[in-house]
Amino acid sequence: MDAEAPTVPEPSPARQQIESMRREMEDMDVDEDMLRDEDGEMLEEVEDDGGLAESDEEDLPAVQDDATLKFDKHEDAVYCVAVSKGGAILSGGGDDRAWLQPAPMGSRGAICLEGHNDSVTACGFSHQDAMCATGAYDGSVKLWDTASGRLLRTLEGPGDVEWLEWHPKGDVVLCGACDGTLWMWLATSGACMRVFAGHDGAVLCGGFTCDGKKIVSGSADGSLRVWNPRKGQCAHAFLPHKGASTDAIVMTQGAVSCIAFHPSDPDLVIGGAEDGCAAVIHCSSKKVLCRLEHSPPTNDEEAGAAVVSVAFAESGWCSTGAADGTLKVWDISGSARLRCSLGAGGAIVAMAWRPASLIVVACSADGCINAWDARDGASLMQLRGHSDAPLCLATAWAQDAIVTAGDDRTVRVFRVPSADLPRPPPGSAP
Questions:
Q1: Residue 365: exposed, middle, or buried by beta-carbon count in 10 A (0-12, 13-18, 19+)?
Q2: How far apart are CA 315 and CA 359, in angstroms?
Q3: Residue 370 contacts by C-beta under 8 Å, 6 or more apart in sequence?
Q4: Residues 123, 121: Cα–Cα separation, whole Å
């Protein structure tokens, strides 16, 4: 019997936007008159050599690369990246492999973690950095010793693993799968502690609240569900809004593909959806606190730009990033209020807030990393290096850095200074 063909991860909303633009260009009609010379003869198609002679290549300016470190051992797109508290970097990709770069960053050679039979789509470090985990579309989660890269055990049971998270205070690992389930294991023994079932679609995002006492998951079925980890039961389901007339604050209508947890309030969670909106929920009161209309549908025919990334600041602010290349900052301390709208050259793939500040950092599908002052939207920094769309971002604030990875098969480290970033002079272009 022939071996089953490996599954390929569904492209992210950002990647779908890029491919859609390429298809539009390929399908574009071209007037034949534009392809004739001055004598009316059709121009012949010739092989494109880039328009450069060999001697010209030496005169080309170097491509801007602001990364302080670059790792390029992956042989396919890199789908996930994580950073330990000590500075070790873990990444996984479409080559069915993960790579572990020991701490501190760039100090020693990387260790190849092999054993998965399909794309590695999720990774992370335990709360004390002793272990790390990788999850893949082969339906397994593998646990590794962070110091040596030695395989500790393989955890099986779920379908294709969409994401994984470690408990913030214990050796417990959680993952969400395409079959609508969540699985939770005790990492020290490999024992399955709970299987959470209830979603009617793939569990696209999720994790523990900051105190570790609740689990929240978002699904392709459009719902956010709050779970009791000890009992394995759903405490509440925030179901998708069906469009009925109501005065109440309602949930989103599309698949919930991204989620963020407040860094200090265990009740606050935000989920972003494909309908161009995001919902901030309160777990204990079981209420939707506000619905953030980032890019809602303009009518029944035209869909809004999907919200593909969300994040909380330590203050009462949060941010949403969409596939249309906009990042919006919201004040949710009272009634939700839009503070500012920021623009990038491509879909806002991922973002993070600098602790104890109002600086938000985001990477976009055009390969850029931007830092803004969220108080007024001033551009503080723009970094380049990726030659294709980044797909993920991890923070390393202890090292004054962020780590990104993506379609160009590289993992890059960019320095973001801990001191206040210099503000541009008044009247300068962002």
A1: buried
A2: 11
A3: 342, 344, 361, 362, 363, 364, 379, 381, 382, 383
A4: 7
Which structure tokens are listed for 384? Answer: 């380049």
First vs last C-alpha separation in the chain: 59
Tokens read off for 206: 């999720």
Tell me which H or E stretch contains 23: helix 13-26
Query: What token pair was written down for 325?
Result: 């290349």
Strands (E) in 35-171, as ranges, are 69-71, 78-83, 89-93, 98-101, 111-113, 120-125, 131-136, 140-145, 151-156, 161-166
Which of 308, 302, 297 is closest to 346 using CA atoms? 308
- For the stretch 13-71, pLDDT in tens is 555 554 554 454 445 454 444 335 455 554 444 344 443 334 444 554 566 899 999 99
Q: Which helix (H) or strand (E) segment is 259 a member of?
A: strand 256-261
The residues near 182 (Cβ < 8 Å, ≥ 6 apart) are 174, 175, 176, 194, 195, 196, 203, 206, 215, 217, 227
CA-CA-CA-CA torsion sign (340, 341, 345, 351): positive
The whole-angstrom separation of Cα 82 and Cα 10 is: 21
List of the chain residues with pLDDT < 50 = 1-3, 5-6, 8, 18, 21-22, 24-26, 28, 30-35, 37, 42-57, 60, 245-247, 427-430
Looking at residue 256, its amino acid is V
Gap between the Cα atoms of 117 and 137, Å rounded:
8
Q: In whole angstroms, what is the distance from residue 121 CA to residue 96 CA?
A: 9
What six digits make up the tokens of 346?
A: 């491509």
pTM: 0.83
Angle (nearest 5°) at CA 257 between 253 and 262: 100
Q: What is the DSSP letter of 21?
A: H
Give whole-number Cα distances, 280 to 9, 335, 354, in Å: 28, 11, 20
What is the rounded distance in angstroms from the CA atom of residue 122 to the CA atom of residue 115?
14
Could you tell me if 359 and 393 are in contact, meaning their C-beta atoms sit under 8 angstroms apart?
no
- Beta bridge partners of residue 66, listed in sequence order: none
Whether residue 212 contacts residue 169, with contact meaning beta carbons closer than 8 Å, is answered with yes
